[in-house]
Write a structure and sequence with these properties.
about 260 residues; alpha+beta; endopeptidase fold (from Nostoc punctiforme); 6-stranded antiparallel beta sheet; 6 strands; about 30% helix; globular
C-alpha cells in the first residue's frame, strides 16, 4: 500500500498542532516558562507571513485589526535586537528609587503631589506630526515617586518604544528586533517581573485581575492590546511613524476591550 498520503497527512497534522497566533488567540498556560519559547532569528520576523508563536497546543490565530495603524515595518527594515526585559528594567530605573514598602507607607501624603506632577507631565507631552507619539527620544521620563515596579515597567517600555512593528514580533523570544502589540506589552511587564513569558492579546485578557489599576491598566481583546502606565498610553496603533514612540499623548476608546491590572497596582 502506498504510504505517501499517510505521511503527508501526519506531517500536516503535526504542523497544525504547533501553529499559534502572535497577537490574538486563545489562552495558553500562563505559568509556562520563558525558556519553553524557541528563539528565532530577528530577521525571520521581518518576513511577511513569517513565523508566529510556537507552543504546545493549537491556538486559533487572530490578526491584529490595528496592524494597519501601527506602521508595520517592511521586510527591508533592520533594527538591532533589544536587551532582555530584566536588564532593561534594572538599567534605567530612576536613581534612588524607593522600595515598594516605602512607597506604600507614603502614598497618602504623596497623592496630591503625584496627581499634580502627572498633570504637569501630560501637559508637557506633545505629539510628533503624523500620529500621537511623544517627541524627544521617545522615552517616557520615569517619576521617582511611583512604585519601583512601575518604574521598571516604564523602563522596559522605553527600551523598545521606538522599535518597528511586525506582527509576531517579540513572541518567539522576548529578545527581538521588532514587536507587535502584545509583544510590546509583554516585554514591558516582564521588565518588572509581572510576566514570565510573552502572551498574546487574547491571553492578556486574563492577565492579573479584572478592572483598571491605579498605576497600570492593560486593555486587551482577541486581536489587540495596549496599556496605560502612570496615566500615559503605550500602544502600537496611532504612532507617528515606523520608528516613532509607542508612548502616546491622549487616550483611545476602550470600548470592546477587557481592563486588567496587577493586584495592588
Amino acid at each position: 500500500m502506498d504510504s505517501g498520503p499517510k505521511v503527508l497527512a501526519a506531517l500536516g497534522a503535526l504542523l497544525a498542532a504547533v501553529a499559534l497566533g502572535a497577537c490574538g488567540g486563545a489562552s495558553k498556560d500562563p505559568a509556562r516558562a520563558t525558556a519553553a519559547h524557541t528563539t528565532t532569528s530577528a530577521s525571520a520576523h521581518l518576513v511577511a507571513g513569517g513565523p508566529r508563536t510556537v507552543g504546545a497546543g493549537a491556538v486559533k490565530e487572530v490578526s491584529d485589526p490595528q496592524e494597519a495603524a501601527s506602521f508595520p515595518a517592511p521586510a527591508s527594515v533592520q533594527h538591532s535586537a533589544a536587551a532582555s526585559p530584566a536588564k532593561a528594567g534594572a538599567a534605567i530605573v530612576a536613581a534612588g528609587a524607593p522600595s515598594d514598602a516605602e512607597v506604600r507607607n507614603e502614598l497618602s501624603q504623596m497623592k496630591a503631589v503625584e496627581q499634580s506632577a502627572k498633570q504637569s507631565q501630560q501637559h508637557r507631552l506633545t505629539p510628533v506630526p503624523g500620529g500621537e507619539s511623544i517627541g524627544g527620544n521617545g522615552a517616557l521620563p520615569i517619576a521617582p515617586g511611583i512604585p519601583e515596579v512601575i518604574q521598571k515597567v516604564i523602563a522596559g517600555a522605553n527600551e523598545i518604544a521606538d522599535f518597528p512593528y511586525v506582527f509576531g514580533g517579540g513572541h518567539a523570544s522576548f529578545i527581538d528586533n521588532a514587536y507587535d502589540c502584545s509583544g510590546s506589552v509583554s516585554y514591558a511587564l516582564a521588565a518588572a517581573g509581572l510576566l514570565s513569558a510573552p502572551e498574546t492579546s487574547g491571553e492578556l485578557e486574563s492577565w492579573g485581575v479584572p478592572g483598571p489599576g491605579r498605576y497600570i491598566t492593560v486593555f486587551a481583546n482577541a486581536g489587540h492590546t495596549y496599556m496605560y502606565v502612570d496615566g500615559v498610553l503605550f500602544d502600537t496603533a496611532g504612532r507617528s511613524g515606523v520608528y516613532a514612540s509607542r508612548w502616546q499623548v491622549g487616550s483611545v476608546n476602550n470600548a470592546g476591550f477587557v481592563a486588567r491590572h496587577y493586584p495592588g497596582l
